[in-house]
Amino acid sequence: MPDQNRILSYLPWLRTFEAAARRMNFSEAARELGLSQAAVSQQIKLLEQEFGEPLFERQRRGVTITAAGAAFLPHVQSAFGTLARSSGELFGKAANRRIILHSPISFTSLWLAPRLKALSQDLPHISLDIKTVHLPADYKSEDNNLHIRYGIGYFSGRNALRLTKEYLVPVVSAATLRHSTSAAVWKSMPLLSVSGGREMWADWFDEADMQIPAPPVHRFDTFVAALSAAKAGAGILLGSRPLIDHEINSGELAEISDIQYVSDNGHFLTYEADIPLNQTEQSLLRWFKQNSINNI
To answer: Could you point out which of 96, 209, 215, 246 has its C-alpha 20 to 30 Å from the C-alpha of 129?
Structure first.
């Protein structure tokens, strides 16, 4: 096992290992780091030789991480996170005031953006660098600590503050309903769905004790895209409140049922359990707590 001084000599290899393990793909890690795939493979091999333990299993169609690699990964990510955060805290006040926040585009567009003016008024010393994410691999723990994540509230190794609780209700464009009845809309318009954890039409129909009229015709990979289609009159969306509250209150969307399905899902502000928040991050955490579902 290498000593601590030797570990410092191959920090670039550790950076390569973290990217390859997070993406589970040497080619994608190479693109992220600006290296060739051969260089990534060589650095991983050197690291394995140094440790005397394989970190990946090479297969014809890719790689899988070994048990040793999986156990090592969170320690590497935590170490890089500590280095990045310490650099920001120690070198300059401006760096300490800027917070990188990874957030799904739906939450950013529909919840956070309408509140940014209030956030700036309440916390004028904080500047957010918001990076929208689409896939779990888009979360990069080494360059920040705060993530907005969607789920039921359990995120391994991370504390979580619930910001929203999801209430699902079918909606259409208000213009559609002005020229038709709710019953006619159900018969004539297709269902719009969102892939992944937001595919919950079956749950809503169970709650409403209704038969699904037909399978969803159009499926989207983001809620924001599906919402745009619904506002354009393309179909019936299972809307997520409070994300669509503005569209309903402004008259762009109209509900076609009084039945709401209460989901266990929601958005959470998360941060690593073993890395203390700095003062700036604590201020932002308090702001989110004051503006979360618990205080609405």
So the answer is: 246
